[in-house]
From TrEMBL:
Record-linked InterPro entries: Nucleotide-bd_a/b_plait_sf, RBD_domain_sf, RRM_dom
Compositionally biased tracts (Low complexity): 17-28, 35-52
Name of one Pfam family that matches: RRM_1
Residue ranges constituting the RRM domain according to the UniProt record: 77-159, 161-243, 255-336
Record flagged with keyword RNA-binding: yes
Cited PANTHER family: HETEROGENEOUS NUCLEAR RIBONUCLEOPROTEIN (PTHR21245)
Stated name of the protein: RNA-binding domain-containing protein
The organism of origin for this protein: Coccomyxa subellipsoidea (strain C-169) (Green microalga)
Chain spans, region Disordered: 1-76, 335-374
Acidic residues composition bias: residue spans: 1-16
Domain of life: Eukaryota
The entry's keywords: RNA-binding
Start-end of Gly residues biased regions: 364-374
GO molecular function: RNA binding
Length: 374
């Protein structure tokens, strides 16, 4: 069984997700679009015609080396807006937001299947944090003037402004590291350089850097990751910092089991009927087939009570496993995502925790090492 097969592929519920989770989803989709569009996004950054024929007001998540990142508003000025009518325009969203303060930029992502519609969410970047704070407090549940009856959701943007930087020379102090960074990047505001306990005076080979805004962080990431850049002869490992546990769910919250070794005849109705003998089944999911895997050999069964899941897993570990159409099924605790809709969003999420001393809420890059670099 591949690692990815232990993850619950259940589709999100029909009801709208929480605005904060939506913000992370939307932010990641913005970054994915930027990465796909590359230089064309940079060309559009100053209002050049986009492919949909509309003017884009400075896409907030793509910057070129020619841009001055300090000209962008600081971190904390951008908000996510969800529940936007699909036919609404950036101008309509801008007018709506201007009641809170001067707007720096507005972005509505276009539906890839229909350029005449947006995806139902967007971002508003204000000139000041105060305006963004007012928007968070006062715009949630409000409606665009041209679309009565459709309430909007508002949450802080998940744009990232903090970097993990590894393979730093161990003899650098915080001041010398700051000087090294200031020579090549802009907007460094906070440096957490972890020091070695075993070798006093030496750092542990990595640091967390907080920048003025996402533009500074993105351009710094590009500059410090460039093949031509070294710090005292060392190439750096650079990634956006991720909150510890950002992709984890406490095991005590899991109420679903992974079911493997399904026969080709298996379907969701059969699985539901089989597992209802153990407890109330709330949902059964077998992931859709793929060209390379026409018969998915695993699925997920959700129960209303966690105690049912615990007993099923314990029994399976002791050798008592259910069977379906002559196949003995594999039963394990499912490993659900924190939010199903966040599966592809983690790369864009900047943390909300602090970078403070021993109690820092940030580890290394997502998927990377959190200990010292050599």
């Amino acid at each position: 069984m591949g690692e990815e097969e232990a993850v619950d592929y259940t589709e999100p519920e029909a009801e709208a997700p929480e605005a904060a989770a939506e913000a992370a989803v939307a932010a990641e989709q913005v970054e994915e679009a930027d990465a796909a569009n590359g230089a064309s996004e940079a060309a559009n950054a100053n209002g050049a015609p986009a492919t949909n024929g509309e003017k884009r007001q400075a896409p907030p998540h793509y910057y070129s080396a020619a841009d001055d990142p300090m000209s962008e508003p600081p971190h904390g000025t951008e908000v996510f807006v969800g529940g936007i009518p699909r036919s609404a325009t950036e101008d309509q969203l801008k007018v709506f937001a201007e009641a809170m303060g001067e707007v720096h930029a507005v972005v509505l992502l276009k539906d890839p299947q229909n350029n005449e519609q947006n995806r139902g969410f967007g971002f508003v970047k204000f000139k000041t944090r105060a305006a963004a704070t007012d928007a968070l407090e006062k715009l949630a549940g409000k409606q665009l003037a041209d679309f009565p009856g459709q309430n909007l959701r508002v949450a802080p943007s998940q744009s990232k402004h903090k970097l993990y930087v590894g393979n730093i020379p161990r003899d650098l102090s915080k001041d010398t590291l700051k000087a090294e960074l200031d020579a090549v990047v802009k907007g460094v505001e906070v440096i957490e350089l972890l020091m070695s306990k075993e070798y006093p005076g030496n750092n542990r080979g990595f640091a967390f850097i907080e920048f003025y805004n996402h533009a500074c962080a993105q351009l710094a990431k590009n500059a410090l990751s460039a093949p031509t850049y070294t710090m005292h002869g060392r190439s750096l490992n650079v990634a956006y910092a991720e909150p510890k546990g950002a992709d984890q769910v406490p095991t005590q919250q899991v109420k679903s089991v992974y079911v493997g070794n399904l026969p080709a005849s298996a379907n969701e109705a059969k699985l539901k009927e089989l597992f209802e003998q153990f407890g109330e089944v709330t949902k059964v999911v077998i992931p859709p087939s793929r060209p390379d895997k026409p018969n998915r050999e695993f699925g997920f069964v959700h129960f209303s009570e966690r105690s049912v899941v615990e007993k099923l897993v314990q029994d399976a570990e002791k050798g008592t496993k259910p069977s379906l159409d002559s196949n003995t099924l594999e039963v394990k605790m499912a490993k659900p995502q924190l939010q199903p809709e966040l599966q592809n969003q983690q790369a864009f999420m900047g943390g909300r925790g602090n970078f403070g001393g021993r109690n820092s809420n940030f580890g290394g890059p997502s998927g990377g090492r959190s200990g010292g670099e050599s």
